[in-house]
Design a protein that fits this description.
single chain; alpha/beta; six-stranded parallel β-sheet; six-stranded mixed β-sheet; 11 helices; 12 strands; about 45% helix; binds alpha-L-arabinofuranose
Length: about 325
């Protein structure tokens, strides 16, 4: 029987093909991704919370622009403030075999199952803006975002200083963000811890306005009806504070004077209200996370080590500081 021996040319072609397959497999071995863009670009599946606030709009713009700038193929999904939509989007990204998944979790709890599915599919996950309360930290590579407890604390410390001479009770109402979300939980905590320094400072009502202007207006109307003496409003974001302005004015009160207003974010409309004397203080929360996120996407895709936590650098604004900062404000 004659044995077939392949020619040297055939062997060379086979070897080249094997080498090419091996290289591609190595490139993706840590990520499990298939480079589903098909054009050699990294594919990022991103699930956004929604479009509830000016902050969110600025955050979405930052992410989209940064992805384009970094040459990353972005698959963007808007979850309309619903956890089930985010879980569905993440499962779709897994099915599509994207290279990296990033998301801003609408609430803190209930992510373990879907994060485990991503891990089993060897797709690295990055948390951005908001975190999750999963005990298993291996379910995601890193968390990029603000220290929300600190933002609440800074807001509370400013108030303690302002009201240090107050002889009687100072009645505070609080507009919370989305129930169960990290910024709502943490800002509430930080603020409460700070104002505990002065027993005169009392939160007399606290309710969610879901981070929206409409929610802020509606809940503030209820607060005003139920409480004849409101000295301070702490709103977990600018948008709810802006909505509340309408309710306060309609109730015949002067925002920023009759009621001291403290918010979080420092988006342009909030900064304008602060510069105009309608707000009194803002703790900044930066939405410009896109460039840092894309950098992390590239690193985790390449299998590089990244810090488990990357905190956004932020500041605070008084009325005078807002007037100075407004002309150069990017969002
Ligand atoms: O997670 C960040 C928060 O979400 C912002 O403070 C708020 O405006 C947004 O909706």
């Amino acid at each position: 029987m004659r044995t077939y021996l392949p020619s040297r040319k055939v062997i060379a072609v086979l070897a080249a093909a094997l080498l090419a397959t091996g290289t591609a497999a190595c490139g993706n071995s840590d990520t499990g991704g298939s480079g589903s863009g098909g054009d050699g670009k990294i594919t990022l599946g991103f699930s956004q919370v929604g479009a509830e606030s000016g902050w969110r709009t600025a955050n979405t713009t930052s992410i989209k622009e940064a992805a384009t700038g970094a040459g990353i193929d972005l698959k963007f999904d808007d979850a309309q403030q619903k956890q089930e939509n985010q879980i569905k989007a993440i499962r779709n990204f897994i099915q599509q075999k994207v290279d990296v998944i990033a998301f801003s979790p609408v609430v803190e709890s209930g992510w373990d199952t879907v994060l485990k599915e991503a891990k089993d599919a060897k797709i690295p996950v990055i948390l951005t803006d908001r975190s999750v309360d999963s005990a298993d930290k291996s379910l995601y590579k890193t968390f990029l975002g603000s220290d929300f407890v600190k933002e609440g604390r800074l807001a509370g410390e400013w108030l303690v200083e302002q009201k240090k001479a107050a002889a009687g009770p100072v009645n505070i109402v609080e507009l919370q963000g989305t129930t169960g979300s990290a910024p709502a939980n943490d800002r509430k905590k930080g603020f409460a811890e700070a104002i505990a320094a002065n027993p005169n400072l009392k939160i007399i009502a606290s309710q969610s306005g879901d981070f929206t202007r409409a929610g802020g207006k509606q809940v503030m109307e209820q607060f005003l009806k139920a409480n004849p003496k409101i000295d301070v409003l702490f709103a977990h974001n600018d948008d709810m504070g802006l909505g509340a302005l309408e309710a306060i004015t309609a109730a015949g009160k002067v925002p920023g004077k009759d009621i001291t207003i403290i918010t979080v974010d420092a988006v342009k409309d909030g900064m304008q209200a602060l510069a105009d004397g309608k707000f009194n203080f803002i703790a900044e929360c930066s939405p410009l996370l896109g460039p840092q996120l894309m950098d992390l996407v590239k690193k985790v895709h390449n299998g590089e080590e990244v810090p488990a936590r990357i905190e956004t650098q932020e500041t605070t604004f008084t009325q005078e500081q807002a007037k100075e900062a407004l002309p150069n404000r990017k969002y």
